[in-house]
């Protein structure tokens, strides 16, 4: 059996590992247009801060591929697929056959249509190459501006703050971390980050990036001009679905797959950041990993179903403990238990729906977060321990 996997991120690599567990003889080839074996995108933040080297963030080195008899082809971009001949074609015109194919092409950073976003000094952060380019350009520069106040924007901003840059964040929403925080928590977080040196413009729409060829500033819709030497845009991701599109596969928020991680074409599977499953586009590591596992097992003859992953995220900014999962109920539609201490930068919230925990925010103290995440995932009934939860006694979970 010949397995071809396009993409060597966590989805593709996990799939390869699980294929090998079930099929000791099959020929497994993983192809990527990147130059580095499987590495942690999450740890790119430490790399950007100068706290980790490339070798530290690489997860599987050459020995792993040798030991598992998996061929890894770096710097190899797949440009086309012939589904009838069952062949993938590289951008160099080489072709290779497959019996089972996996799309694990991930996603790319979305750049909103802001005039001037093609100027020198405007970046996105997705790959180790992006991080290298940012580090190189930032040398000798002072003012860094982040468009996007989500997890990635704040973490990247903090990484460069540690390198001595002045950080300004421009966020379209009225609050930071619009996906992980409600306004009560986001307000305290903003105050804490400001105390660390961040400057924020919230509810602000970017209009134009200015400068001759190099960026010198950002103009907002209301006419405010913010001077800066470098801009990183972190305005979300979009699926890397061009190849799937060429095959006529259905793409909505992502490439549509079923619970077995199969696309609409027989023997072609998909997993990771590029997919949409039961209406959800995830864009998070644990989901991509689980989907890779399910896809790999099914490609090798198994029959395992993917049931979805609880959305969760941990902000990795030293001095700021923050984790959130599930529905944080910004609109206050559900019951919730909130603990708040503005002075100590603490905000904790348990969201309750139908006698179950459906979401949480742990900010300032993440003790018990894993327990709560598990209870959310397991849809545990909390009626009997509700009184204890009101006192933030999580021992019954
Ligand atoms: C800086 C950063 C920090 C993050 N932090 C977190 C975090 O704290 N928690 C969390 O849950 N998630 C985090 N994420 C998101 C997480 O990294 C992704 O969800 C995850 O890496 C997706 O894995 P994947 O395997 O689906 O795709 P990817 O890791 O994107 O891998 C896809 C690979 O396919 C390659 N490829 C695409 N098209 C082709 C082609 N035509 N030919 C060949 N190769 C191709 C791409 O170049 C890429 O190497 C972070 C992401 C970034 C960028």
Poorly predicted regions are: none
Mean pLDDT across the residues is 97
Q: How many β strands by DSSP?
A: 25
Largest sheet: 5 strands, parallel
- Rg over alpha carbons: 22 Å
Shape: globular
Lateral strand order in the biggest sheet: 3-2-1-7-19
Small molecules in complex: flavin-adenine dinucleotide
- Helical fraction: 10-25%
- Estimate what percentage of residues fall within beta strands: 25-35%
The secondary-structure class comes to alpha/beta
Helix and strand arrangement:
Blueprint: E1 2-6, H1 10-22, E2 27-31, H2 44-49, H3 54-57, H4 62-67, E3 70-73, E4 78-82, E5 87-90, E6 95-97, E7 100-103, E8 107-109, E9 122-123, H5 128-138, E10 143-147, H6 151-162, E11 166-171, H7 183-195, E12 199-202, E13 206-210, E14 217-220, E15 225-227, E16 230-233, E17 237-239, H8 242-246, E18 255-257, E19 268-270, E20 275-277, H9 285-299, E21 312-317, E22 320-326, E23 335-341, E24 346-353, E25 356-363, H10 369-377, H11 386-390
Bound molecules: flavin-adenine dinucleotide.
Explain how this protein is built.
The chain is of the alpha/beta class and 397 residues long. It contains 11 helices and 25 strands. The strands form 7 sheets. A 5-stranded parallel sheet has the order 3-2-1-7-19. Strand 24 and strand 25 (356-363) form a beta hairpin. The longest helix is centred in the last third of the chain and has 15 residues, at 285-299. It starts with a strand and ends in a 7-residue tail after the last helix. The model has no long low-confidence stretch (mean pLDDT 97). The structure holds flavin-adenine dinucleotide. Residues 6-12, 31-34, 41-42, 44-45, 77-78, 104-107, 125-126, 152, 240, 243, 272-273, 283-286, 288, 313 line the site of flavin-adenine dinucleotide.
């Amino acid at each position: 059996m010949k397995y071809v996997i396009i993409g060597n991120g966590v989805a593709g690599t996990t799939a390869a590992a699980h294929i090998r567990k079930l099929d000791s003889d099959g020929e497994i080839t993983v192809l990527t247009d990147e130059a580095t074996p499987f590495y942690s995108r999450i740890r790119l933040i430490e790399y950007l801060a100068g706290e980790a080297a490339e070798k530290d963030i690489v997860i599987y080195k050459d020995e792993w591929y040798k030991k598992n008899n998996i061929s890894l082809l770096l710097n190899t971009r797949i440009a086309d697929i012939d589904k009838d001949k069952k062949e993938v074609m590289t951008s160099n015109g080489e072709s290779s056959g497959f019996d089972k194919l996996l799309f694990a092409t991930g996603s790319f950073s979305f750049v909103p249509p802001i005039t001037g976003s093609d100027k020198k000094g405007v970046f996105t952060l997705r790959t180790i190459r992006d991080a290298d380019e940012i580090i190189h350009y930032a040398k000798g520069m002072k003012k860094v501006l982040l468009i996007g106040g989500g997890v990635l924007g704040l973490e990247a901003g903090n990484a460069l703050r540690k390198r001595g840059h002045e950080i300004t964040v421009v966020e379209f929403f009225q609050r930071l971390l619009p996906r992980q925080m409600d306004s009560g928590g986001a307000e305290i977080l903003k105050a804490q980050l400001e105390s660390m040196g961040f400057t924020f413009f919230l509810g602000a729409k970017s209009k134009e990036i200015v400068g001759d060829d190099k960026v010198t500033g950002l103009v907002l819709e209301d006419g405010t001009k913010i001077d800066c030497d470098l801009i990183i845009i972190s305005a979300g991701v979009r699926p890397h679905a061009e190849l799937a599109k060429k095959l006529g596969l259905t793409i909505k928020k992502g490439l549509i797959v079923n619970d077995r991680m199969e696309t609409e074409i027989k023997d072609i599977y998909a997993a990771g950041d590029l997919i949409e499953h039961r209406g959800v586009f995830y864009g998070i590591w644990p989901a991509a990993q689980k989907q890779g596992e399910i896809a790999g097992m099914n490609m090798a003859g198994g029959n395992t179903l993917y049931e979805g992953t609880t959305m969760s995220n941990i902000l990795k900014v030293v001095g700021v403990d923050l984790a959130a999962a599930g529905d944080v109920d910004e609109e206050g539609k559900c019951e919730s238990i909130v603990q708040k201490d503005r002075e100590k930068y603490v905000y904790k919230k348990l969201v309750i729906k139908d006698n179950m925990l459906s979401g949480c925010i742990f900010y300032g103290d993440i003790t018990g977060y894993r327990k709560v995440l598990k209870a959310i995932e397991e849809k545990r009934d909390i009626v009997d321990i509700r009184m204890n939860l009101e006192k933030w006694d999580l021992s019954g979970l």
